[in-house]
Write a structure and sequence with these properties.
heterodimer, A: alpha/beta, Rossmann fold, 6-stranded mixed beta sheet, 4-stranded antiparallel beta sheet, B: mainly alpha, 13 helices, about 75% helix, membrane (chain B), transmembrane helix (chain B)
Chain lengths: ~325, ~270
């Protein structure tokens, strides 16, 4: 792939976390002699993304997702390896690079608190050197899509979390970035707002062909938005592919459920029994046996609500990370 | 080149507009401003009391009035709060926003600082005038060349900004860089001429103190403004100011560049 929008080779980030007591005296002493604890946040990452791809970084807390994202955005400098985004080395933070990318962080506000969002937009117009016609066109488009025409005239501090996030997105997209970095963009938002933001990002990507890189704790965000997933755990790339491929690889069994007047005598012969209760049966079945099992279940008396599912994503994640933190990902 | 200049002018105007609006909305810092910067006026009360029974050194009562009112006002024109802004942004990760913009965060801070000037002046000038009138010191001594005073003020502003950025950048490595600034501020109050005109320190000590950056960032411009620095002292004082501005500018630039490379972007 020569036309990669993002190319990462042997990327590492090692943090030296200073270890010291609190207080001014310790701060002064730390200027002279410091003790460190070494943390390898990212180790030997390797991947490349094509223009217009939507990619999700998945992993438990502290897995290195956000560190990787920040290295791609040029906020932190890699300890080793190479990063190239839109043909630039991000950490050099050249203005030409910064004008081609945008970073939205769900946990950080970037708009000025006391001013209406529209003032922030206007400020970005000047700083990003957006020409007047393009600015007006994009502002109209974005404010209509996100429905913030009224909201953007109120001081940012008066906005709800969701309204603010919409305004953050407008501010981030006014300069028409080729690469959009989204760090937990829907954190703390209610379900309908999450859906709205998700839909907007998908649409924006489809219409403008921008490469979108997303980290999220909400599995649903990633599953719904990103045809391609990079699983990062312990600072390493553990998986690169579609969510279906991930599911099949980690939890190959399909979940089959049915309701019937009488259940088969020996359901354990069909697969692993997850639930057997009243007239309801839930089984985990090997993929190659699904047609056979479904055939048998359909033939049950008064069979209804027959369904075949992939394993729930949370289970996939739990299985993948094999530790408690992964539960949060649900 | 002219295109770059006009872009710089546009960006400056944009930062100015947004900062001015913020400064107006930023009430807490205004309160801090009132509390921390009326210090020379407290000194004025003290010293003019002492001078009531006769001059102290070469300062009589009206001299003290002029000196401290000038010190109060000039401090407004040169003050900065970049150290709090910067160290806060580094610690919380808010610096990310500035780093992602295609403009220098340092330029942003500098313009933001300048943008607060009109408001500071609007608040400080009436206070200065009232004090001056109350103290009966309306006869202002000959301030010498206005251009020289202006130049000296600009240099004092640069020294202050350099110090603020230097100490603020320490937050890249140290959690309590603002505590270090408190130390600086303590020395500043004693050694800059805000509490005592530095020429009143004992001979020998006075020369040392007057060569330090504290005096260069306040005492010297004040002496210029009230016509106490003349002849060779003007050139010498300006040269010292240039020296300190360059030294802190260079230090700030080095620390900033290294700090950004050490920056960890904060936040999971």
């Amino acid at each position: 792939m020569t036309a990669a929008m993002v190319r990462v080779e042997g990327l590492c980030k090692r943090f030296s976390v200073p270890r010291r007591e609190a207080g001014l005296r310790a701060a002064l002493r730390a200027l002279v002699r410091r003790e460190y604890r070494v943390v390898d946040a990212v180790q030997d990452l390797e991947f490349s993304l094509a223009p217009g791809e939507r990619v999700g970084f998945l992993g438990p807390n502290g897995a290195g997702k956000t560190t990787t994202l920040k290295m791609l955005a040029g906020l932190i400098v890699p300890s080793a390896g190479r990063v190239e985004v839109a043909g630039f080395t991000p950490s050099e933070r050249r203005p030409e690079f910064l004008r081609r990318v945008s970073l939205v962080m769900g946990q950080k506000r970037q708009l000025s608190w006391d001013l209406p969002a529209i003032d922030n937009f206007e400020f970005n117009r000047v700083v990003y050197e957006i020409d007047a016609a393009a600015y007006k066109r994009r502002l109209d488009e974005l404010t209509t899509l996100l429905d913030v025409g009224e909201v953007m005239r109120r001081p940012v501090r008066q906005l709800s979390l969701g309204e603010r996030m919409k305004c953050e997105l407008v501010a981030a997209l006014l300069h028409g970035p080729q690469v959009l970095f989204l760090d937990e963009p829907t954190i703390g938002l209610d379900v309908s707002m999450q859906l709205g933001i998700r839909e907007f990002i998908r649409r924006y990507n489809a219409e403008h062909g921008a490469t979108v890189i997303l980290t999220s704790h909400y599995m649903e965000d990633v599953a719904a938005l990103c045809p391609r997933i990079l699983v990062i755990d312990g600072g390493r790339l553990r998986f690169d592919g579609s969510i279906e491929a991930l599911r099949r690889q980690i939890r190959p069994l399909r979940r089959v459920s049915v309701r019937a007047a009488a259940l088969p005598a020996d359901p354990a012969a069909m697969g692993r029994v997850v639930l057997q209760e009243g007239g309801r049966l839930v089984l985990d079945v090997a993929p190659e046996r699904v047609p056979e099992v479904v055939g048998a279940l359909v033939a049950l008396p008064e069979a209804q609500d027959l369904a075949v599912h992939d394993a729930p994503l949370e289970e996939v994640m739990r299985a993948l990370f094999g530790r408690e933190e992964a539960a949060e990902l649900g | 080149m002219s295109e770059r200049a006009s872009k710089l002018a546009r960006v400056t105007a944009a930062v100015w507009r947004i900062s001015l609006a913020e400064a107006i909305a930023y009430r807490v810092s205004m309160l801090m401003w009132v509390l921390t910067t009326t210090f020379p006026l407290v000194s004025l009360a003290l010293w003019s009391g002492l001078a009531a029974s006769g001059p102290v050194g070469d300062y009589d009562r009206p001299d003290f009035v002029a000196y401290f009112v000038a010190a109060f006002l000039l401090r407004q024109f040169t003050a900065s709060w970049v150290v709090w802004e910067l160290s806060g942004q580094i610690r919380t990760g808010d610096l990310n926003t500035l780093l992602m913009r295609p403009m220098s965060p340092m330029l942003y801070h500098a313009i933001q600082n300048l943008a607060a000037l009109p408001i500071r002046c609007a608040l400080a000038l009436p206070i200065g005038l009232v004090v001056l009138a109350l103290a009966g010191g309306l006869a202002w001594p000959d301030p010498g060349s206005l251009a020289t005073v202006g130049l000296s003020l600009a240099l004092a502003w640069l020294i202050n900004l350099g110090v603020h950025v230097t100490i603020g950048c320490l937050a890249f490595w140290v959690t309590e860089s603002t505590a270090l600034f408190e130390v600086w501020l303590g020395l500043y109050l004693v050694l800059s001429g805000a509490a005592v005109p530095t020429s009143l320190y004992p001979a020998g000590l006075a020369e040392v103190i007057r060569a330090l950056p504290f005096h260069a960032s306040l005492g010297f411009p004040v002496e210029l403004a009230i016509g106490r620095a003349t002849g060779a002292a003007v050139t010498q004082g300006l040269a010292l100011q240039v020296l300190w501005a360059a030294a802190f500018g260079a230090l700030a630039a080095v620390l900033w560049r290294r700090g950004v490379r050490a920056y960890e972007g904060v936040g999971t």
